[in-house]
Amino acid sequence: xxxxxxxxxxxxxxxxxxxxxxxxxxxxxxxxxxxxxxxxxxxxxxxxxxxxxxxxxxxxxxxxxxxxxxxxxxxxxxxxxxxxxxxxxxxxxxxxxxxxxxxxxxxxxxxxxxxxxxxxxxxxxxxxxxxxxxxxxxxxxxxxxxxxxxxxxxxxxxxxxxxxxxxxx
Amino acid sequence: xxxxxxxxxxxxxxxxxxxxxxxxxxxxxxxxxxxxxxxxxxxxxxxxxxxxxxxxxxxxxxxxxxxxxxxxxxxxxxxxxxxxxxxxxxxxxxxxxxxxxxxxxxxxxxxxxxxxxxxxxxxxxxxxxxxxxxxxxxxxxxxxxxxxxxxxxxxxxxxxxxxxxxxxxxxxxxxxxxxxxxxxxxxxxxxxxxxxxxxxxxxxxxxxxxxxxxxxxxxxxxxxxxxxxxxxxxxxxxxxxxxxxxxxxxxxxxxxxxxxxxxxxxxxxxxxxxxxxxxxxxxxxxxxxxxxxxxxxxxxxxxxxxxxxxxxxxxxxxxxxxxxxxxxxxxxxxxxxxxxxxxxxxxxxxxxxxxxxxxxxxxxxxxxxxxxxxxxxxxxxxxxxxxxxxxxxxxxxxxxxxxxxxxxxxxxxxxxxxxxxxxxxxxxxxxxxxxxxxxxxxxxxxxxxxxxxxxxxxxxxxxxxxxxxxxxxxxxxxxxxxxxxxxxxxxxxxxxxxxxxxxxxxxxxxxxxxxxxxxxxxxxxxxxxxxxxxxxxxxxxxxxxxxxxxxxxxxxxxxxxxxxxxxxxxxxxxxxxxxxxxxxxxxxxxxxxxxxxxxxxxxxxxxxxxxxxxxxxxxxxxxxxxxxxxxxxxxxxxxxxxxxxxxxxxxxxxxxxxxxxxxxxxxxxxxxxxxxxxxxxxxxxxxxxxxxxxxxxxxxxxxxxxxxxxxxxxxxxxxxxxxxxxxxxxxxxxxxxxxxxxxxxxxxxxxxxxxxxxxxxxxxxxxxxxxxxxxxxxxxx
Lengths: 169, 781
Ligand code: SF4
Ligand code: SF4
Ligand code: SF4
Ligand code: FES
Ligand code: FES
Hints:
The complex is a heterodimer of chains A (169) and B (781).
Chain A: H1 11-23, H2 31-42, H3 47-57, H4 61-68, E1 82-87, H5 90-94, H6 97-108, E2 114-115, E3 121-126, E4 138-140, E5 143-145, H7 150-161
Helix pairs in contact in A: 2-3, 3-4
Chain B: E1 3-8, E2 11-16, H1 21-27, E3 51-54, E4 61-62, E5 73-75, H2 79-92, H3 110-118, E6 135-136, E7 141-143, H4 153-161, E8 167-170, E9 177-180, H5 201-205, E10 211-213, E11 226-231, E12 240-248, E13 251-258, H6 272-276, E14 291-294, E15 297-300, H7 303-321, E16 326-329, H8 336-350, E17 355-356, H9 363-369, E18 375-376, E19 379-380, H10 385-390, E20 393-397, H11 401-404, H12 406-419, E21 422-427, E22 439-442, H13 448-454, H14 460-467, E23 471-475, H15 481-490, E24 495-498, H16 505-510, H17 528-532, H18 543-551, E25 557-561, H19 565-568, E26 580-585, E27 597-600, E28 609-612, E29 617-621, E30 626-627, H20 633-644, H21 648-651, H22 672-682, H23 694-704, H24 713-717, E31 722-723, H25 760-770, H26 774-779
Parallel strand pairs in B: 1-5, 16-17, 16-25, 20-21, 20-23, 21-22, 23-24, 25-26, 26-27
Antiparallel strand pairs in B: 1-2, 3-4, 3-5, 6-7, 7-10, 8-9, 11-12, 12-13, 13-30, 14-15, 14-27, 18-19, 28-29, 29-31
């Protein structure tokens, strides 16, 4: 049973949150993991999620928002089914990260932090995703695709479009 | 702590170990520029403006976070440091628009001064500018994002100082911004908004013009105002405030209230009312001409006619029906001098003890209960407001200072934050100060008697309270009469403070605006003051008794000064139908509407004199604003006595003497006369000039009222607060049931008695809190 009546999260997530709130010396430390799990479940961090997390951790909603707005990987608006995150940090930049980004913009007809009309893809330019050795790299939801070229990128996108991608959400 | 010696710019200095370098330098007259550092708040080191060179340290260090150490050698100005500060400024100016000419902070902006000093003319900042329109977060708080230098003073002020946490920092890097607690996504009108106490402390703490005040912005410039230090008119805490005043066609208008010079016991604190609710003074509904009832209607007449008529009728009624057919009601917002004069008027001019006021706390019992035990360890048991900030332990019984006495709440929080004071709370509500409390005891509503009994028992709470050697007990106005006396008796080792509601509630009681006690709570017969007055020895009618008498046709005349008892006590208007009523007030209140003569009065910002706060701290009020057509209550009482046919010199001892007003009463309008007064003061001379000079009566107060005899006039004139303990002997023990006479005003943060409806700002804030702030909270459920 969740410690919060009428939790907006699934019973599993709610139970996970109950546990999270109990394992740190200060409850507040559970904030970032909670936000991430909330985003995984809902797709973004909604106002309702902010309110419930604040209640769970005895924080003000403002405190939650302060942290939420700091991390660029946390979102406050829904994204497409597949969130394409193109790295343009140093290694990827040297190996054509910007080219990839431009290519995605062109083929998907959307810009940074935008979503395609069918809601399938959204695009984001991100900082280092930790795959520098195989730059340029792209992360789609939690999948990594490395050593890309515009042509390889097309194939990746096509896979998702055809429903062959891992569907994490 | 032990002192350490160190060198700054070649000067040998000493300071206690643990002192911050920036503070140590400041006390030695070496100013280190700082933006984010704010005394009393946590350290942030966000701005890097205070960098100094400390010998043997590889890099420049921030003086605001470095504590002094033995042998430290510091350089605070050098070409290297100047270059570093210039670079810091260039970064801070990254988003800054060049709008000093219109910015409200222009002329008192720390960033402007520093940029001028270090000449940071161009910026190497290439990121896109963070430009946004200014935003209105509430009726009184506006935010101009590009001007913000992210020093977090406002965030800390609101969180640590106010315990509200209504401001935060959002986003990161160059897009960091200060954000209020109602985000756009939750606000009903699509604009970010603030749900908070609207105190404006964040605005005052802001070193630049990023946060601006809704009542002051774009109105004037600091150098275009006169700045007059006086005392807030609203609650019983008695904050010192500096009013910015400028001339208008019919007098002078207040445009700003603040206490940036931190000169009073409130430091730089002011609550919403203190900072903004001066606007009642500028209300167009102000009465500016005397009114007399003719054919059932109040019509404007000349002062001569109104006063002549009122004086003559009062005389006739007194002569025909006797002195006890006349009643007088005083005010808890007039000065001590006016209250004293009014009771003297009732007792010597009319010849009755039918005098009372709207009592918001039971000072008579406090004075009676502390009689004979006025000291604990040689110190008076009447606590001062300053004790709240310093006492190691505080017991708060009844009352909710956060709402009713905001400065008391601020001082308690400050004491807990800076000195780790132990706070114990006993209350029937879950008050906000519980967050600061070490222990909380819930009390049933109206169950304070049981709580006081429980002080005799051995439980954890009472053990903790009783083991405190230096205990300050702050008593809310819910306790009165026997309960209050019992509480005082139960804690013989403690100091006491009793919270009242208005600026001079305590003063009115101290000055004897009471039917059964003379000034200083002296008995009606036998005291020094009683032998000076030829006043009746029988107690008079109290406030409710007067209205009962009026309803029974036994009160033929009623003189009401600066008070609205008809509304406050819910008096039936027909009670006064056969009574001749004279009312002095600023507005046509419910009471004034029933009057036969209405005299337009000046308010506390428009006169001089002294007031005594809830704690017995006496402070000077100075004339800041002015309004054509109104007169001070003091002058009106004197003129009425004159028209009554009374020998004025026996009422106000003026003329020959040693002291007088040489400018104090004119405040902002004074000039040459003030310089003259400085000379006179220096030579111990203050010739009395006029019967309207309140300082003439202050002489008499000092001479006759116990406690006030200790008042140092020069301390008062230089704007300091002085603590008064009415330590007179032989106080009268008041018995009987006067419980219902004490009527707390039940004012909250955004109300101030009858003034509420004349303050558009208070109404705006109430509406904001009810609509903009309440909606998102409701939808969050
Ligand atoms: S006005 Fe006062 S309570 Fe409101 S945000 Fe500013 S500091 Fe906080
Ligand atoms: S709004 Fe003012 S006080 Fe707050 S961070 Fe910005 S500059 Fe500092
Ligand atoms: S706390 Fe009281 S005295 Fe101080 S500013 Fe507020 S209303 Fe005025
Ligand atoms: S730089 Fe792109 S993954 Fe590290
Ligand atoms: S004042 Fe020291 S870093 Fe801001």
